[in-house]
# Entry
Amino acid sequence: MSACLCLDKSGGGISSDACQVEGSISSLYLFALLMAAPLALGDIPIEVVDDLVSVPYVTMTVALVAQSGVHVQTTDEYDQFIVRSGQTYTATDSNHYVAGDASSASYFFAAAAIAGIPVTVRGLRPNFCSR
# Structure
């Protein structure tokens, strides 16, 4: 796998090519690709070359761009994505809910368990990204 970016921004728009990304360490690069790809000059096929560790976060990203009018095609395994060019983000009058970060909240749950005290964490939706 190449360490080069699969997007090239040089003047007339974002050109594109097929992308391969690693999913075992972080999915932040995948998030960025999914969000920028609709604005590219051509379709962008994305392949995740190993196990995707952040499936719930990718699910949230795909849902968020869908709420804004962008469709991302994906396999059930989330190892292949296709983002068609020519799509545009559309503003809506509705508010977008961004789920609380359960992995960050887990530190507070652990501290409460160790200390034997109750803790309340608001903003988590347990079934927000059941996948």
Summary: The CA atoms of residues 69 and 86 lie 11 Å apart. The two ends are 28 Å apart (CA to CA). The chain has two domains: 7-87, 96-124.
